[in-house]
Amino acid sequence: MRAIATDIESLSASEAARAPATPAATTAATTAATTAGTTATADGRSARSQRTRDAVVDALLSLLESGNIRPTAREIADEAGTSLRSVYVHFDDLEDLFCAASQRQGERIRSIVAAIAEGPFEPRLAAFVAQRQAVWETTRFIRTAAALQEPFSPALATIMAATRAAALAEVAKLFAPELAGLGVEDRAATLSACDALSSGPVWDHWRFHQRHSIAMSAQILSTGLRSLLGRTFA
Question: What's the structural domain count of the chain?
Fold first, then answer.
């Protein structure tokens, strides 16, 4: 009898497992599967959209770095391997695209610029000159394109103003010990002169108008900063 009871219980459990689900259970399962599928589809579309957006920004930067400082939307689309329509789907206009490219370029610069340690003047100066040299040489055509676009783009002008302010703040912080020994007016004038001397346009003047080598341009910058900050060659 015990064996028969056990068989009956096993049979009942098996039949229960094979029994059709209730309408409520079926609806819940279907809803969960649909929700999961919709979420996965949306995530996939979002990832593809971001990849296309990144490709367009990278294409613009690539064209600028090659010397094409006024690329057309068609040229950008071709470089990115996407359609012209896709460029305008992801960006309102070329101004919007230039702003995105400027932000991306800022991220690239931050990745190659290391913090300069405190210490004696000469090591700080050498590190600063090497840093500015790397940045200005890397960003020549991109800076030229941004300068052309800036007067017509309030958003880009804001980004460029923030970049210049950050460069000035870096000079003020790095050479604070030397500037601290000056009077208020002299300190402000010297800071402004150091900022201008170490700027991108001045570096470009030495490199591409006066046709100095990178090494000579770096030497000119070092000598000028020593003179402004009251230091003689060590």
Answer: 1
Helix locations, the chain, DSSP H: 2-18, 23-65, 73-80, 84-90, 94-112, 121-138, 140-149, 154-174, 176-179, 184-197, 200-204, 214-228
Residue 34 within any structural domain of the chain: no
Residue 169, token pair as written in the block: 């703040």
Residue 186 contacts residue 97 (beta carbons within 8 Å):
no
Would 3 be classed as within a structural domain?
no
Listed as ranges, residues in the chain with pLDDT below 70 are 1-45, 232-234
- Give this prediction's pTM: 0.72
Q: CA 16 → CA 5, 21, 23, 30, 183, distances in Å?
A: 16, 10, 16, 21, 92
- Would you state the pLDDT for residue 49? 83
Token pair in block for residue 144: 């030229």
